[in-house]
Amino acid sequence: MVDTPWSGDACSLVDAYRVGERSPAEELEASLAAIERSSLNAFAHLDPEAARETAKNADVSLPFGGVPFGIKELEQVKGWPYTEASLIFKDRIGAYDTTMVTRLKAGGIVPIGSTTASEFGGLNVSVTKINGVTGNAWDPTKSAGGSSGGSASAVAGGLIPLACGGDGGGSIRIPAGYNGLLGMKGTYGRIPRGPHTSLNPHTVVLGCLARSVRDAARYYDVTAGHDPHDPTSLPAIEGWERDLGSYDLRGRTVVIDPTFGGVAVEDAARMVVEQAAEQLVAELGLVRVDLPIEVPRMGGEWMIGNISSLYGEIEDIWPGCASELTDEIRVGIQLSENLLNMRVAAAAEMGRREANTAMAKLFDEVDFVITSSNPGPAFPAEDGMSSDAKTFIDYARGNPLIQKAFAGALRAARIVSGVASKTPQRLLAAVTKGSPKLLDMGALTIPANISGNPAISIPVGDVDGLPIGLQAIGRHHQDALLFDLAQHVERERPWPLVAHEAPR
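^ that's the sequence the OP posted. Answer follows.
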């Protein structure tokens, strides 16, 4: 009888099944028991009976045959709660499986339940009104990151060997970095987002939170490839796992800047990333290039513009549902509703074009850019953002008078903008200037989403016992080179596959 969940990667678990060392049914029970004991709060929903039936009939010849698997709660699964981590959809049930989930099921996974996320995937933390706080696998009092925080916490915490995630601004790489996992954001369109694809804002990429490079590569083999329901999806490429380690990286050029051109990164984390990057240069024969990184950060115009796709989902119940939303999402909707006009939308599009051009010019010169995945190690779990600077939201939280005054001021701004169209843009500029650290949330990761470049977070060390991730960004469609870069680190300096004393 298996007492504790598998502490290796998913691929080695399948190998153990095939030689009879473990069984899917026993492994599932070990994971369910570990989840029950865990204080991480990594799961929003469990489906044990359906999982037991799937495990009993698991085909271990499949790529992930019999592997207990967590599905991020922003992914729709037929018959499961489909809340998108929000109280306003607490009673909604999934009507279908997404394309990725369908392919994963065909690949043999045992879906165990949905993992926690930030509300609508809007923040780099996993703190919501519907689920509470998800803890970091290495220290539950610290943040798991987001938005795929539950997936990262569950995998690093030793509860399950693999879980899916999504990355629209760092939501795979950020929690991977904080929890000591491998987090790959592929070239935009690598894994399709059907069957009902929401295209705006053309930044979201699907993937997984993995313990090993081969797990992430096998995940590509199972899930990647064109789907007609997603017009932006890329053609399938065979042999992601098979071809690992087959690329010669010697002579490839790299820029090393843990701050990505000036993002505030803590000194200790910066030193860990810098040292790991220099080891890669020496061991792989990379050529370091001293090239300044001048990629503009996306301003408030772009951020509030992205709310429009969410607004379409909640328009019929807004603003009556405002009190059920997290403060950050509520304020974002209020800003978008009252300040988004043609001038603001145009400025957002021009800013995006400028950022994309800057990234393209950067990769005209080099093969890789290496930065930190996060500004530092994980911060307190209850915090709404990875910043020590108080924002308006901190002051307004729990204060209905401030919230009411703010809503009134925004309505007034909307009226004024009817005759002075530059007013909303000036207000956004003032907010941005007054809260500069607000834009540091995801500032290390968002550029690769804007441009669609592949990027990977690789565990390279720790600060005070909390993991630090190195982010490597590559050229479009050269995902395989990033896998090989990560595999070299994995072989030379193996990272812990689960947090100490897991499950927690």
